[in-house]
Design a protein that fits this description.
By secondary structure, the chain is an alpha/beta fold. It has five helices and four strands. The chain has a single domain, classed as 3-Layer(aba) Sandwich (Rossmann fold), CATH 3.40.50.720. A four-stranded parallel beta sheet has the order 3-2-1-4, with helices on both faces. β2, α2 and β3 form a beta-alpha-beta unit. The longest helix is centred in the middle third of the chain and has 14 residues. The radius of gyration is 18 Å and the shape is globular. The N and C termini lie far apart (59 Å).
Length: 145
């Protein structure tokens, strides 16, 4: 028997256009790709967080591309390891944008060394605060507080 099964990829949007999606590290390579993916799936409101904001050419191109697709983008400079800064962004967005329905952590810190000593607690100290974003603020998003 020679059976062929044809698969058709799902192309219809499945994200809520009336919700907001937050991407920490929104202007890095992974963050930009995630923003484009979310929009292809129906997202129309994005919060793109980065320490520098949309300064780079790539970031400015993404902002232009998204706004041309009628996507509302809020892109403040925000260090997610600074709890007060994150809270300020969330407070501002609560007044201006639909409720946040999804949060993507796409930040990265790269440590380049000429020698290869193992990473230890001291070398990881600068990385850990940013990794705490979900623990610090995700419960606020879940509770709506």
């Amino acid at each position: 028997m020679n059976h062929q099964v044809r698969c058709r990829p799902e192309t219809s949007p499945f994200l809520c256009a009336e919700s907001t999606y937050l991407i920490a590290g929104g202007f890095g390579g992974l963050g930009r790709a995630m923003a484009q993916w979310l929009v292809r799936r129906g997202a129309r409101h994005l919060i793109l967080l980065s320490r520098s904001g949309p300064r780079s050419t790539e970031a400015q191109n993404l902002m232009k591309e998204l706004t041309e697709k009628d996507v509302r983008v809020y892109a403040p400079s925000c260090d997610i390891s600074n709890r007060a800064a994150v809270r300020s962004v969330l407070d501002a967005c609560e007044k201006e944008m639909p409720p946040i329905k999804g949060c993507i952590q796409s930040t990265m810190v790269m440590i380049v060394r000429k020698t290869r000593p193992p990473l230890n607690r001291n070398s990881m100290a600068d990385i850990k605060p940013g990794a705490n974003f979900p623990k610090n603020e995700i419960s606020r998003l879940e509770d709506g507080t």
